[in-house]
TrEMBL record:
This is Fasciclin-like arabinogalactan protein 8. Residues 337-370 have a biased composition (Low complexity). The chain crosses the membrane at residues 417-437. It is found in: Cell membrane. It holds the Pfam family Fasciclin. GO terms for cellular component: plasma membrane; side of membrane. Keywords: Cell membrane, Glycoprotein, GPI-anchor, Lipoprotein, Membrane, Signal, Transmembrane, Transmembrane helix. It comes from Panicum miliaceum. Residues 371-380 have a biased composition (Basic residues). InterPro entries: FAS1_dom_sf, FAS1_domain, Plant_FLA.
Length: 438
């Protein structure tokens, strides 16, 4: 068979690539929403409300494969009775497993037991492997959950299935939380020394500025309510072309530092899913001094309108306060967008204003001395360097689940996933003849 003309092959390749891109976009758009899934289920209203208040819901939604162990209102009430929000957040993280477990898998564990990672372990706050969860198929058809701590008891047991999105999200009800000594007792945000934390995080220059300007008091007053601090690291103050901050008025410096804080609790996972402009402490309510978020995969950057700054690390996540480091100074366009950046004096001639140029026909001939001089141009505004892009049937624990029954229950819900698979098959069918032409 004669080879296809070159331009025909090119069109076919473009068609396949376009279909593949469309499939990838469709697959990406099928992310889950745990609070929406639990909404309307009256027995989990307290659990769901704390998912939102602590922002653990955003962490769950950003995971591609996850199992959420939920507590009824009664069990949740007992848990939160004497805990701070920070401790409640860690308890919810321990109940979130970074793997997919449904009823069938719980009753068919290799050797009857499995150790899996929790969301709490992923944060890096856990001592050793204390954030791992031991899942064991107990006698009598029960499945227990416990911390990986030596001698930990299986106080939490599987009760029933709540909902599933096969291979992506499994929501299971359990009897009790999963705890271990040391999980609770986090200090409140107001008791921490803010400048010490910033110094240890490599943000010493920023710490000095907020102290000298008095803005540190504004931050501390907001820490018990809600505060997200965006602290530039020391390297950010060494960036080439950075405006001379020493020439800012006291009021402008205060505004700049207020621009580096949000009057809300917004950890990195929450920023990743943020929509629209985000107000800062400097915002006026008229859309000025706001930030926008640019997210790509796990990278999150903040856009000021003049440049982007990548969110580098989490220094403190203690609900309702979070401290994040950023790679560059956040320069609001309202302050630095319309005028040249302050620059060091260039000598006596730099202070003499240039006279308006006369028409060329009447311009006097320059003197030899003047001809050798060129007027120095003011530096254009320089900004932070851009970051790299940047109710389903209940099953009792003793009942061994039947895969076919579960599939029937979920068939309607999984229609979108089936359509996506069918679409992928179509793309593959097109790709095969293209490969033959090539």
């Amino acid at each position: 068979m004669a080879a296809a003309p070159h331009h025909h092959r090119g069109h076919l390749v473009l068609l396949v690539l376009s279909l593949a891109a469309a499939f990838a976009a469709a697959a990406d758009s099928s992310s889950h929403n745990i609070t929406a899934l639990l909404d309307g289920r009256s027995e989990y209203t307290l659990y769901n409300s704390y998912l939102s208040e602590t922002k653990v819901c955003d962490e769950i939604n950003s995971e591609h494969t996850v199992t959420v162990l939920v507590l009824t209102n009664g069990a949740m009430s007992s848990l939160v009775a004497n805990l701070s929000l920070a401790d409640i957040k860690n308890a919810l993280r321990m109940l979130t497993l970074l793997d997919y477990f449904d009823e069938k898998k719980l009753h068919s564990l290799d050797a009857g037991s499995e150790l899996t990672t929790s969301l709490y372990q992923k944060t890096g706050q856990a001592a050793g492997n204390m954030g791992h969860v031991n899942i064991t198929d107990l006698r009598g058809g029960k499945v227990g959950f416990a911390s990986a701590a030596p001698g930990a008891k299986f106080q939490s047991t599987y009760t029933k299935r709540v909902d599933t999105e096969p291979s992506a999200l499994s929501v299971l009800e359990v009897s009790d939380p999963i705890t271990f000594p040391g999980l609770f007792g986090s200090p409140s945000a107001s008791s921490v020394n803010l400048t010490d934390i910033l110094d240890k995080a490599g943000c010493k220059q920023f710490a000095r500025l907020i102290v000298s300007s008095g803005v540190v008091k504004m931050y501390q007053a907001a820490m018990d309510k809600a505060l997200t601090l965006l602290a530039p690291n020391d390297d950010a103050f060494k960036a080439k072309g950075l405006p001379d901050l020493s020439k800012l008025s006291s009021a402008d410096l205060v505004t700049l530092l207020q621009y580096h804080a949000l009057p809300q609790y917004a950890p990195k996972a929450s920023l990743k899913v943020a929509k629209g402009d985000i107000p800062t402490l400097a915002s006026t309510g008229a859309g000025k001094y706001d930030l926008s978020v640019v997210a790509s995969g796990d990278d999150v950057s903040l856009d000021t309108g003049l440049g982007k700054s990548r969110v580098a690390s989490t220094v403190l996540d203690d609900t309702p306060t979070v401290i994040l480091t950023v790679d560059s100074l956040l320069l609001p366009s309202e302050q630095f967008g319309g005028a040249p950046s302050p620059a060091p004096a260039l000598g006596p001639d730099a202070d003499v204003p240039a006279s308006a140029p006369a028409p060329e026909t009447s311009a006097p001939a320059p003197s030899p001395k003047a001809a050798g001089k060129k007027k120095k141009k003011a530096k254009s505004p320089s900004h932070s360097p851009p970051a790299p892009p940047a109710d389903s049937p209940d099953l009792a624990p003793a009942d061994a689940p039947e895969g076919d029954a579960a599939d029937k229950v979920n068939s309607k819900k999984n229609g979108g996933a089936a359509a996506a698979v069918s679409f992928a098959a179509t793309v593959a069918c097109i790709a095969l003849p293209v490969a033959a032409f090539l």
